[in-house]
Amino acid sequence: MKFGISQSFPCSYLPDEQETLLVYAEESEHNTYYEMLMAAGFRRSGAQVYRPHCGACSACQALRVPIASFVPSKGQKRILKRNSDITVVLSEQDKDHYYALYEKYINTRHQDGSMYPATPEQYASFAHGDWLDPLYIELHLAGELVGVAVTDALENALSAVYTFFEPSLAERSLGTFTVLQQISIAKRLNKQHLYLGYQIDNCQKMQYKRNFLPHERFIEQKWQLISKKDW
């Protein structure tokens, strides 16, 4: 297996840090090795499979939820109840009207991020798989599309790639609701884990991930269980 190391560039999550990536560099065999790389702390963005490789910083920790042992908190149960009027639909195809919702989400909620302003090319770069066809989890409210979670379906796991939703519905906590739906779908499909990307404790945008307990973090080249009593 071939890997490359990127040049350093400003970190997207910690403003005072520089980021370097270890990138899977094979031109083929992504499908063969993708799940194995995920289990070694890697992540997919578009066609690129990578993990942080920063010499002076180890803040990024891959996080996954063990499906069989996950127990929703009281707050998460309230979010499920609050959104009981939302219909969840699974699609294996990207749909034209997804982009309008994505554009509204990025341009409203992430004006300080690297994905602003949204463009169709940027959306396609992660929503369309060159070597893997994602699963699209749709949220519908009163007949309207209000959320989409782009999700990779692997043999033994699901991986949350990116979620976007109607910005005016922020009080519904649709990000957390969507993760709960991904966990439910993973359980229904007999998957072992849901990968949630990287947890960065010093980044406010990432704090929601640590609330799914128990979870496992990839620390010092091994998965370590984090339970409620440890958190």
UniProtKB/TrEMBL annotation:
Residue ranges occupied by any N-end rule aminoacyl transferase C-terminal domain in the UniProt entry: 98-218
GO biological process: ubiquitin-dependent protein catabolic process via the N-end rule pathway
Segments forming domain N-end aminoacyl transferase N-terminal: 10-78
The protein's Enzyme Commission number: 2.3.2.29
Primary site of residence: cytoplasm
A cellular-component GO term for this protein: cytoplasm
Main EC class the enzyme belongs to: transferase
Classification via InterPro entries: Acyl_CoA_acyltransferase, Asp_Glu_LeuTrfase, N-end_Aminoacyl_Trfase, N-end_Aminoacyl_Trfase_C, N-end_Aminoacyl_Trfase_N
Record localization: Cytoplasm
Keyword annotations from UniProtKB, A to Z: Acyltransferase, Cytoplasm, Transferase
Catalytic activity, as annotated: N-terminal L-glutamyl-[protein] + L-leucyl-tRNA(Leu) = N-terminal L-leucyl-L-glutamyl-[protein] + tRNA(Leu) + H(+); N-terminal L-aspartyl-[protein] + L-leucyl-tRNA(Leu) = N-terminal L-leucyl-L-aspartyl-[protein] + tRNA(Leu) + H(+)
Cited Pfam families: ATE_C (PF04377), ATE_N (PF04376)
Transmembrane segment boundaries: none
Gene Ontology terms, MF aspect: arginyl-tRNA--protein transferase activity; leucyl-tRNA--protein transferase activity
Family the UniProt entry places it in: Belongs to the R-transferase family. Bpt subfamily.
Function: Functions in the N-end rule pathway of protein degradation where it conjugates Leu from its aminoacyl-tRNA to the N-termini of proteins containing an N-terminal aspartate or glutamate.
Protein name: Aspartate/glutamate leucyltransferase
Organism of this sequence: Paraglaciecola mesophila KMM 241
Organism taxonomic ancestry: Bacteria, Pseudomonadati, Pseudomonadota, Gammaproteobacteria, Alteromonadales
